[in-house]
Amino acid sequence: MTGSDPLRLYRTVRLIRRFEERAIELVRAGEIVGGIHPYLGQEGIAAGVCAALDREDLVTGTHRGHGHVLAKGADPARMLAELCGRVTGLNRGRGGSMHAADFGVGVLGANAIVGAAGAILTGAVWERRRRGADIVGATFFGDGAVNEGMLLEAFNLAALWRIPVLFVCENNGYATTMPVDGAVAGTIAGRAAAFGMPAATVDGQDPEAVREVTAAAVARMRAGGGPELVEARTYRFDAHHTFEHQVRLDYRPPEEVAEGRSRDPVDIAGARLDPAVRAEVDAAVEAELDAAVDFALAGPHPDPATALDHLYASGLTARTGGG
Ligand SMILES: Cc1ncc(C[n+]2csc(CCOP(=O)(O)OP(=O)(O)O)c2C)c(N)n1
């Protein structure tokens, strides 16, 4: 189990925060095509969960997935290049924001399909453990995923076969514009009981609280326990998607947004450091991201002639139409 490390937690939430802010600038500049789902406000969850995992442990994430990839240890420069669609990106610019992966640090990928990441992670952890790997996994999903059949099937199989998966619900109160109270019967943590899984609810704005809850669950799972569920209560500080910056949907009262923003994981983690140390971290993160932006924008775009490369593991190329 990894112990408390306030410096590491602060560095991670600050890195994710500034990465996302830089990425939004690159969307506006037209360098990231199609926009992103910003993780702003939710950084404490990825930071806290991943701080309690080892490098070999596996994670899968969501459409709002940059924080998960970064917190698990992916290189921010190659991640940013991926978002910009460059060949120097983590996945040669072919995954983009919603399908970024870095198998080298156990990130099996962000995922655009709501509810899918839990099923992928459950299968992957099961397969690795059958081959003898002593690993656990964590999968992130939003409140909008908790009624998806695919996720509930993953709960069932993980519990039945005692697959050590931590199911982490990032409850930010909304699925796009749909409030959780209008969509979810019963409680989120309560769903775990139906499958005999332990469940905990935690303040997702406090990365140390998230790390503690995760570390305890991971210790139980490494000792042979089955899957567990954590509901992390959080708030999305920005838009569902950057496209919302243009359409200005009116679904969250300004007072609610102000209240949500008042509990900022970057400030909560930062208050645990000496101000001079905090300033040093901020400067180091800024320098790293300056270099990351330069690296991302310097990379070439993929050659369209290679569009069908890497589609088949066997090396077969796709048919060129006509049957
Ligand atoms: C299976 C599926 N249904 C619908 C969508 C469209 N969609 C994309 S994001 C989203 C909302 C997801 O909300 P939530 O899971 O709470 O995550 P959040 O966006 O709040 O992080 C929806 C409905 C999708 N991508 N996949």
Q: Within the largest sheet, what's the order of strands?
A: 2-1-3-4-8-7
Task: Give the H and E element order.
Answer: HHEHHEHEHEEEHEHEHHHH
Helical stretch count? 12
Instruction: Characterize the largest beta sheet: strand count, sense, and whether it forms a barrel.
Output: 6 strands, parallel
Give a count of the beta strands, DSSP E runs of length 2 or more. Answer: 8
Shape: globular
Kindly report how far apart the N and C termini lie.
54 Å
Structural class: alpha/beta
Tell me roughly what share of residues is in helical segments.
40-55%
What is the averaged pLDDT score? 95
Ligands: thiamine diphosphate
Organism: Micromonospora aurantiaca
Keywords: Oxidoreductase, Thiamine pyrophosphate
Pfam family, one: E1_dh
Protein name: Thiamine pyrophosphate-dependent dehydrogenase E1 component subunit alpha
Question: If you had to describe this structure to a student in words, what would you say it looks like?
Answer:
The chain is α/β, with parallel strands linked by helices and 323 residues long. It has helices at 6-28, 43-51, 66-71, 76-83, 116-130, 149-160, 191-194, 207-222, 244-247, 254-261, 265-270, 275-298; strands spanning 58-60, 107-109, 137-142, 165-171, 174-175, 178-179, 199-203, 228-233. The strands form two sheets. The chain has a six-stranded parallel sheet with strand order 2-1-3-4-8-7, sandwiched between helices. A two-stranded antiparallel ribbon has the order 5-6. Helix 1 (6-28) crosses helix 2, helix 1 runs parallel beside helix 12 and helix 4 (76-83) crosses helix 12 (275-298). The site of thiamine diphosphate has 16 residues, from strand 5. Keywords: Oxidoreductase, Thiamine pyrophosphate. InterPro entries: DH_E1, PDH_E1_Alpha_Subunit, THDP-binding. Residues 12-296 form the Dehydrogenase E1 component domain.
